[in-house]
Design goal:
single chain, alpha+beta, 8-stranded antiparallel beta sheet, 3-stranded mixed beta sheet, about 25% helix, about 35% strand, globular
Length: about 180
């Protein structure tokens, strides 16, 4: 990348990539197992804000949204237009923009992001800034869960939004 991020770009540290992410509900047992492992790993490897070791999640990525124009499909489901450039950085260095990346600004300091491949969208994450309107992410989850069977994983909070029930209450799972 030959320029610094602009105020209209979504720029965040590479360590924040997919810390809050949407995954297909078909992976529920695998993700629950992984979250239990991660919780135990964190208890033995985290000292305040420092990690002794790195926990690597190995998830077989398949398209969450496939077919032609997957970003436009998300725009239609969520009722927002794709926006800003997606830029990752490491320490103080700009790593560059994500190839075929996109953002979907939901408002309230919440933005969905990901990238496309010839098969569709294999990664759909959420960037939640300071003082976010949490309802924006909850509303996106409800729409994506009902239309595409996605669940929302917050790896840092060790929380999994699985589904919504008939009364509209969100079913939450924690290890």
């Amino acid at each position: 990348m030959d320029r610094a991020p602009k105020g209209t770009d979504l720029a965040f540290h590479e360590d924040d990539w997919s810390q809050v992410e949407f995954l297909p509900k078909t992976l529920l047992p695998e993700i629950q197992k992984m979250m239990k492992e991660y919780k135990a790993f964190e208890q033995t490897n985290r000292v305040q804000n420092v990690w002794r070791n790195v926990y690597v999640r190995k998830i077989q990525r398949k398209p969450l949204v496939s077919g032609s124009a997957p970003v436009q499909q998300l725009e239609k489901i969520l009722g927002v237009k794709a926006g800003r450039t997606l830029i990752l950085y490491s320490s103080s260095t700009v790593g560059g923009s994500v190839k075929d990346g996109f953002t979907l600004p939901l408002g309230g300091n919440v933005t969905l992001y990901g990238y496309t491949t010839h098969e569709g969208i294999p990664v759909l994450g959420a960037s939640v800034g300071p003082n976010p309107e949490d309802i924006k992410l909850s509303q996106a989850f409800i729409k994506l869960n009902s239309t595409s069977g996605m669940m929302l994983v917050d790896w840092r909070a060790q929380m999994l939004l699985v589904s919504t029930n008939r009364s509209g209450k969100i079913d939450i799972w924690r290890p």
